[in-house]
Amino acid sequence: MQHLDPLELDAARAGGPHPHLEGCAECRAEVEALRGLAGRLGEATRVDVPAGLALPALRRRRPLWRAWAAAAAVVLVAVTAGVLPARADIVDAYAMARSGRDASALVRTCVRADRRAVDLRGDVRFAVVDVWIDSGKLGLAAWQVEVTGDAKVVGVEGGADYDPAALEGGRIVLAHFTLDEKPPAGRVRVARLHMMESDAPGYAVKVIAAAARGGERIDVKAEIAGGTR
To answer: Which of 52, 86, 120 marks a domain boundary?
Structure first.
């Protein structure tokens, strides 16, 4: 399937209809990510463009001129606004859901993870690894983390969204949001992973994004418990 080019994606972001979007979840997710980025750019503090910044003239006869023009426009807008584009995450998906839109395609984009090969050596065993997030006094409405280790993920419990392609690999991205009026606060176990491990699995967890109720981005602490240390 041939996906939309950057200019077509931007036209769809601005509200232009395109039949391709009806059958392509990936392009729909890209459009929603662009809408989220446009909203953040609109709220950003503007700065002066450095003197001497100029874009070379574009020639229509070049095959890639449309994609080049779109990329240049995005960079110019980002520089003018004083920010750089960021990849959409679970907080953007949460904002979509709060506005009544379907965020399922964007969630799948957030947790996409290619399977990372793991070579288990020594005695192989099964272990349970819990992923905890501490949001302090704030309710945890949305979260997204990456878990890595020299072990294979063979199962996931707890209701988190993830990419099934990550199973049997050593890297998985987990994410979830809730529209509940009172999301859980404090130290919360967000997922339980079933792992196949051998010596020194070296588990690590990294927070990608988190938000309190209402969509405010917050800093949280994540940790791994269980498994072989």
So the answer is: 86
CA dist 111 and 156 (Å) reads 13
Q: Which of 18, 52, 86 delimits the end of a domain? A: 86
- Phi, psi for residue 9 in degrees, rounded to 5: -65, -40
Q: Same domain for 117 and 211?
A: yes
Tens of pLDDT along the chain (229 residues)?
677 777 787 788 887 778 888 778 777 877 777 777 776 665 555 555 555 555 555 444 444 444 444 544 444 444 444 443 357 899 999 999 999 999 999 999 999 987 778 888 778 899 999 999 999 999 999 999 999 998 999 999 999 999 999 998 899 999 999 999 999 999 999 999 999 998 888 899 999 999 999 999 999 999 999 865 4
The answer to whether position 101 is within a domain reads no
* 151-157 and 221-226 strand pairing: unpaired
pTM for this structure?
Answer: 0.64
Q: What domain range is 28 assigned to?
A: 6-86
